[in-house]
Design goal:
Length: 236
């Protein structure tokens, strides 16, 4: 099978790990993610993953609870490590070789981030899970995904969401919202569309790194993207 891409970075939201729960990790969603990632790895794709932590704690929540912003951001980073460990366990239970890499040192749990080492893991066919964001406060996991994707020379960022692409307005609120099959970075900015936070988006724009926004909950979508079929919305 001819693959459209050689190396991808898959960005997943922590919130979607909740499933129908209001908090934490839903075993069914965890298994779903792991099975999707395994398909990509088995097909010979080099796969890196960045997952958010919103199902456990969001740094942005901190200000409402009296927690200082920087402290809250670090707490959010810890949440992404917990999710990374869960994804790692789920993948290894399916026989997939993985490496959990963290931007904050915690040697008993994960490897510290070293760019060349991370690339070597990918070349050896291991799924690399990047956790703890960028290791610095004030940056989201979107920014971490954009940064790591550029550092490892990924061909594309695949952003898995609950909707099947980018719309002119929120499709859950506006029945007249139209979907874009393809859109330029400049148009996303001029229309004020919410694809990623601006730091992450600008980093992709400056380095000509395409982004595909798609519905991760449809099992066949990742396979279709991998085989070159058009799914979701391509930003380039």
């Amino acid at each position: 099978m001819a693959l459209r891409y050689k190396r991808i970075l898959l960005k997943l939201s922590g919130e979607s790990l909740m499933g129908d729960q209001g908090f934490g990790i839903d075993p069914g969603m965890l298994k779903h993610y792991a099975q999707q990632i395994k398909k990509l790895s088995d097909a010979g794709l080099e796969v890196a993953v960045v997952i958010g932590g919103g199902n456990i704690f969001r740094g942005l929540q901190a200000k409402d609870s009296g927690i200082e912003r920087v402290q809250g951001d670090y707490m959010g980073m810890m949440a992404t490590v917990i999710n990374g460990m869960a994804i790692q366990s789920a993948l290894e239970s399916l026989g997939v070789f993985t490496r959990l890499i963290t931007a904050i040192k915690m040697e008993q749990i994960a490897e510290p981030y070293i760019r060349r080492k991370a690339i070597r893991h990918l070349e050896k066919g291991r799924v690399v899970i990047f956790s703890a964001g960028t290791g610095s406060p004030y940056f989201t996991t979107d920014s971490a995904a954009a940064l790591r994707a550029n550092e490892i020379n990924a061909d594309v960022i695949l952003k898995g969401t609950r909707v099947d692409g980018i719309y002119s307005a929120d499709p859950e609120k506006d029945p007249n919202a139209t979907k874009f099959d393809k859109i330029s970075f400049a148009k996303v900015i001029s229309m004020g569309l919410n694809v990623m936070d601006m730091t992450a988006f600008t980093l992709c724009q400056e380095n000509n790194l395409p982004i595909i926004v798609f519905d991760i909950n449809k099992k066949e979508n990742l396979e279709k993207i991998m085989q070159g079929e058009h799914v979701g919305t391509l930003v380039e």
